[in-house]
Amino acid sequence: MERVEGPNGRYLGRVYKTPSAWVAEPYLSQVALIPCNSQDEAIQTVKRLGTEAR
Known about the structure:
Layout: E1 2-5, E2 11-17, E3 22-26, E4 34-36, H1 39-49
Antiparallel strand pairs: 1-2, 2-3, 3-4
């Protein structure tokens, strides 16, 4: 599992690899788990949809 942080260092979510896909798990998003084709796509998805932790 890889932690994804925003530009100010706050937690946005995480990404991880399953046998069939990379998974984006944005923090406080309405969609909990989003399958992605690559690690880069998963990271960009978390950055786009994640809410910064306070």
